[in-house]
Amino acid sequence: MTVWAVHIHFVSAQDKTADQGVYTSAQAARGAAVFEAHCVSCHREGGSAPVLAGARFTKAFADATLLSVFTTIQTTMYRLETKRAIKRTRKISNAHIFEAVLSRTAAHRRIVDELLALFGGRTQPVMSHLIEAGKLTLDDLRDAEKAIRKHSAKERAK
What we know:
The chain is mainly alpha-helical.
């Protein structure tokens, strides 16, 4: 009977939102400490992974139950792990700690290389599209010219 009561309590907690007191202060503090130590470097504004704290996260999951938030994050992480985009590096209590297999820069380069491969390695169709779509600014062109000059200087130095 006690097990049943615990189960009912757990299920009812899953149906609550975080703002409805799902966690005790001690649980929240432990979770915050793990998040700060192992997660915030990627899961922050401008990080390499979705933001999992603050106003943007709260707004996205405002009406979500604990179970739906947990399921969404768990499903996403396991899918990324299956695709070998992330890997588990350790487990702290019930929390699995993951890290990206590729850096953001490496992922960007890979995507660009694959995009250019669609055009037989030619950049002109991509550049034309960016210009026509208004997505290539004068600052972008200046940065590109600077990179070309830097690359040319390296080639001459060889």
